[in-house]
Design brief:
The structure is a homodimer. Chain A is α/β, with parallel strands linked by helices. The first copy, chain A, is built from eight helices and seven strands, in the order H-E-H-E-H-E-H-E-E-H-H-E-H-E-H. Helices cover 41% and strands 17% of the residues of chain A. In chain A, strands 3-2-4-1-5-6-7 form a seven-stranded parallel sheet, with helices on both faces.
Chain lengths: 225, 225
């Protein structure tokens, strides 16, 4: 029976990867890079995206897809920070977004009038790491309240991501959290990770993150392929 | 194909529930209640269990099983707080513990000389909610750094649990976290939840939690069935 399960899983994953390729092709044709945000519940994905929308809305046309097990709370929060449609995917207990959900969401997004797609995955540091959504990069968030060894204990998420954002930096003075050790663990798991250290609440570190996103959009526009 | 997947999943879940029943019977026969701790990564399961072991080790014979995607860090931490064997289950990316892993772990535990079994699940607020491990109760933890709406967004975990522990209470003064609202959301999802509010770091709220565990052990001993 175990073999059957693996077999079906492999077929489901293969089908997902196929749809993800289609999503990626559409996004690349539209020159709209997508970022897939992955973290534990409560690591601060939504607040980071709210602040990102506030800062970039005037310059970039940003589309947003949010996934949650239940409720549209995150979509409602984000909708207050943009006049564009924020798409909510309710997974009904499902533990990750899949490429088909993104493919369907793209049907309601005017890709020709989109510079950047932000995808907020279900709060889960395990399962979303395995699912390609057609994004340009996965972005893994982890907060300073979570403990230094998270990259070692959840290596798949940190390996799948190109970018790691350490959040809630404003809480550092109130914690026994060794930032250098946390970054070291993340680098040990994935030496290619690019780091941003932010407090979305105070704005600390946000300029570098916003510059990075602007640069990614500019690079996608100028890509000669 | 979707039908096939559901079918296999249902068979896997049914098989898990069958093994969980066997685990539950063995634990009940040994009068050793088990608690299955579920939370986001970094909500403070391990620290709560460390403090619980420190406080109760002299009075109760406590067995511990910890699950992690990767590393034995939690087991190593916990082993410093008990002279009994701490069993580590490394799931290799798997997103939850299952009943078979607990069944296997019981093989190394002298149940006749055990008063209480503490199971620290993989850090994941989604998937572990669906898996019966044969525990007496699931215990869901969520920290005040995670946001008030977690019970609404991850209702399965809060429905599956009998006990909810709000952790990191010492950080409240540094956060915009509405505790009454968070508790209200949790009650809305599961009116039968019993709450404990703790800071494992400062010890605040720990006596009530420890009294509860002592009471559960005493009740299991006195159970006439």
């Amino acid at each position: 029976m175990t073999v059957t399960v693996i077999d079906v899983r492999e077929r489901v994953m293969a089908r997902n990867d196929e749809i993800a390729r289609g999503v990626r092709e559409r996004l690349e044709r539209a020159r709209a890079p997508a970022f897939n945000f992955i973290s534990s519940p409560g690591a601060g994905k939504t607040l980071l995206l709210e602040r990102t929308l506030d800062a970039l809305n005037a310059q970039l046309r940003i589309a947003v897809v949010t996934g949650d097990c239940q409720t549209q709370n995150d979509a409602d929060r984000l909708a207050r920070h943009t006049d564009r449609l924020v798409q909510a995917v309710v997974t009904n207990g499902g533990c990750h977004l899949d490429a088909r959900q993104i493919y369907t969401a793209l049907g309601s997004i005017a890709l020709d009038a989109t510079d950047l797609l932000l995808i907020e995955n279900v709060g889960n540091l395990v399962c979303p790491a395995s699912w390609d959504l057609g994004e340009r990069s996965k972005v893994v968030l982890f907060s300073v309240t979570e403990g230094e060894d998270k990259p070692l204990k959840y290596p798949n998420a940190f390996r799948a991501a190109r970018i790691a954002i350490v959040t809630k930096l404003d809480l550092l003075p109130h914690l026994e959290f060794d930032l250098a050790s946390a970054l070291g663990h993340a680098r040990a798991v994935n030496p290619a990770l690019r780091f941003f250290l932010v407090s979305a609440r105070t704005g600390e570190g946000m300029p570098a993150w916003l510059d990075f996103l602007r640069g990614e959009v500019a690079a996608a526009r100028d890509d000669p392929t």
